[in-house]
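Notebook entry, structure prediction.
Reason for the run: the old model in the group folder had no record of what sequence produced it. Starting over properly, with the input documented here first.
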Amino acid sequence: MSRAKGNAAEDKACEFLVQKKFRVIERNFYSRFGEIDIIALMDNVIHFVEVKSALDYELAVQNITKSKLSKLIKTGDIYLKKNALNVNYMYDAVIVTPQKIWHLENIII
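New structure, fully documented this time:
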């Protein structure tokens, strides 16, 4: 996927989360392990959000690999340590297709 398409999907995901009363804290947080697309806050819980887009839901979800989840967790840990945060948090995914947007909370259990 091109960077422009990725940015467009992330923009849609941010708008979607804001409509659901999330507060977007940061976008595209990088560490040596990887990137977190969106970091958002709701009800004193930080949500580390991976955005995936495709023509349909199944294709997008298949792109959330074990390797990607590992990088997401490591990068989330870096964010928490860097900002000296001791808060509740979870890892989510937002799936963006041309027809619909899904928010999957707590994707790693």
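Summary: The longest strand covers residues 45-53.
The old model has been moved to the deprecated folder.
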